[in-house]
Amino acid sequence: MTFIKKLGLVVVMLCMTLMLFAGGQQEASGPAGEKPYQIAVIIKATDSDFWQYLLVGAKNYEFEHPDLVKITTYGPPSEADIAQQVAILEDVISTNPDGIVMASTSSDATVPALEMAYDKGIAIITVDNKVNTDKVHTFLATDNLVGGAMAAEKMVEFMKAGGIALKGKVGIISAMAGVQVLTDRDDGFKKKLNELAPGIEVLDARYIDNDIVKALSATEDLITTYGDDLIGIFADNNHSADGAARAIGEQKIQDKVILTGYDSDPEEVSAIKSGVLKAIMVQDPYGMGYKGVDSAVTIIEGGKLPAFVNTGVVSVTKKNVNDADVQGVLDPFSMKKY
């Protein structure tokens, strides 16, 4: 072999080695982008049926598109475990998924990690609670100001139907302080109630750390403190509504203290059917999971999405709780395919 041929062979081998090295470096620095896409779904808590409903939507999408996506799911035990959710997010980012669908409990605590993931080229889809950064590809959620207002409208409707004068005091049992999604629900409720019944005083919210037993105790304290002046309670998520319904049901005052709530789980549905809980504003967690994964795929494949997608809210009462068209939002487990 001539010197020139030998030199040419060396150059070719060197170029191939550099290309392989470069390819390995590229794969390590960003998502692989190969099907099935690796998508992590992070929920607020594993102790709530509401968030399990979201996972049903995400896993159903995987079941329907097995060659397109591979879903892994994560979440802390309770919505009070904000630091643990941040740690989970950071661990997930280190695995370099193609996309992340996240219901962030805090609007601020997860921002640094989400921004880092976005900058790495990971598709970031937030659901339910807005985070305070523009470095997300889309946000899917209920308009919670509207949902809170609907809860106030239903409360007044039931007060009028029951002959309760629109004067007195109404309490708020809130799952947690400082969570924007809950703040919006409470603000929407207070604003609409003030419009519809200015003679009613809305008391300061009682925060229960998303604990059903604490919600029960807070409701009992409201009943003891305000007696006959207490004519209504708004509970702004499923755990707060579960606890409030237990207290009101035990004292059999459901026609004196009108309870409206938010979200859906089996205990809430049972309380609706018994008449203890008058109305619940039901979101679409199944849709958040299903559409969240689909949105991640759109971004991974180079598509564009609106900054916000309203996933809607439905008012459920004893009158329509058994209707076929609300069963999907009340019990997404019934739609489970996997």
How would you characterize this protein structure?
By secondary structure, the protein is α/β, with parallel strands linked by helices. It has 2 domains: 37-142 and 285-311, Response regulator (Rossmann fold, 3-Layer(aba) Sandwich); 144-282, 3-Layer(aba) Sandwich (Rossmann fold), CATH 3.40.50. It has 11 helices and 13 strands. The strands form 2 sheets. Strands 6, 7, 8, 9, 10, 11 and 13 form a 7-stranded mixed β-sheet that branches. A 6-stranded parallel β-sheet has the order 2-1-3-4-5-12, with helices on both faces. Helix 2 (49-64) packs across helix 10 and helix 5 (144-161) runs parallel beside helix 6. The chain is elongated and about 65 Å long. The termini are far apart. Mean pLDDT is 92; it is low at 1-29.
Task: State the gist of this model.
48% of the residues lie in helices and 17% in strands. The protein is of the alpha/beta class.
